[in-house]
Hints:
Blueprint: H1 2-7, E1 14-17, H2 23-33, E2 36-39, H3 43-50, H4 61-66, E3 70-73, E4 84-87, H5 102-114, E5 120-123, H6 131-144, E6 153-156, E7 175-177, H7 182-193, E8 200-202, H8 206-237, H9 241-248, H10 270-280, H11 286-296, H12 298-312, E9 321-325, H13 341-350, E10 354-358, H14 364-371, E11 384-389, H15 394-406, E12 408-416, E13 428-429
Parallel strand pairs: 1-2, 1-4, 2-3, 4-5, 5-6, 7-8, 9-10, 9-11, 11-12, 12-13
Amino acid sequence: MTAQLGERVGDARIGIIGLGYVGLPLAVEFGRHLPTVGFDINVKRIEELAAGEDHTLEVEPAELAEARHLRFSADAEALRDCNVYIVTVPTPIDASKRPDFAPLLAASRTVGATLQRGDVVIFESTVYPGATEEVCVPTIEKVSGLRYNVDFYAGYSPERINPGDREHRLPDIVKVTSGSTPEIADFVDTLYRRIIRAGTHKASSIRVAEAAKVIENTQRDLNIALINELAQIFSRLGIDTVEVLEAAGTKWNFLPFRPGLVGGHCIGVDPYYLTHKAQEIGYHPDVILAGRRINDGMGEHVALRLVRLMTNKRIHVVDSRVLVLGLTFKENCPDLRNTRVVDVIAALRDFGVSVDVYDPWGNREQAHDEYGLDLLDSLAEGVYDAIVLAVAHRDFVEMGGAAIRRLGKPGAVLFDVKNILPRHEVDERL
Ligand SMILES: NC(=O)c1ccc[n+]([C@@H]2O[C@H](COP(=O)([O-])OP(=O)(O)OC[C@H]3O[C@@H](n4cnc5c(N)ncnc54)[C@H](O)[C@@H]3O)[C@@H](O)[C@H]2O)c1
């Protein structure tokens, strides 16, 4: 059974569980070649996709139409005929920053309920090493009554897409693959080679593949944390951090990281999966957690610097009006998940500041429901005591410094968190 399946990727009938930023592009790529069912518990999401639209903007309507073998359903019954399941549900953390496995467990139960002998379940969600086989597989076994690596098999292939990035798209990014047996690893690898032009890297085990993904994001988090710490030191020393980085960057092996707010669904979250596992096995990950602490404190740092600047300019902070430009966690992308711009807003409000937020990309409903923020419809000139340029949307870059300054009162403060304007056009940058 195993060998047959390994040789016969052409017979794969794919079921994708979870059609978000990761699952939809994957469903579309497989749906060009193989019968594919895209399943999501969110009925609204299924309706929007069936109507040929994707609010995440990762997939164009024309690309959706090109995936001729892809159909969508919010009914798990539609997965019955599948023999390869790919799970792409969220892996959030809870209020205590511990892994929240609820979506993965629910997806594992869904798969377990329809799984047949010989089927393969591949996980793409970011987890810590061991989670697939320690958390998901036992649930599948329990619900299906089938035995792991006897009746069904597993794989893990982490996703590396970068939302909003039109250059590095799914088929153009080398994909790490793995399987629960050598034959299944071959099968998983061959399967992904059907859709990944850039090629694959077959890891020696599921745990290696899981670890590879989580350290990619942990490394990035820590690199940014170092630069954020330097930004805090240089701010106290009265030195411009970007000027220092430009000077240091002339050395061939100096890494080009910039300071900033570290939000989003991945970099600010995934390291906590690894630190949780490390602590579970009795190792305290000092460096990783220190980096997390620094990055999580950057919103407050920005607010403090802005308030200091306003005070120095004799702008009365309490009841002042501050405009925050951008709310999404990154530029040119509608993703509001885990945006740390909200920390800047919260800290400013603690100082008695009245904060307006404008973001032409962010979803108004989500901003309201998740953060209690009502995004401005339009911008008015001459209104604000200070402006925080928080996200480098191309709309703000195109506006330029002069137009952005016109939104403020005469003498208003402009803080460029993302370093998108020339130094002389702003009062402060991170
Ligand atoms: N967004 C990224 O850039 C990115 C990149 C690499 C890896 N990842 C990882 O991929 C995983 C998915 O992330 P995402 O950004 O696509 O999340 P997302 O929130 O955009 O999408 C998840 C989808 O899964 C659905 N879902 C939730 N529970 C479900 C269930 N039980 N059954 C079926 N559908 C369910 C949701 O309705 C949603 O549509 C996470 O582990 C994330 O860390 C994300």
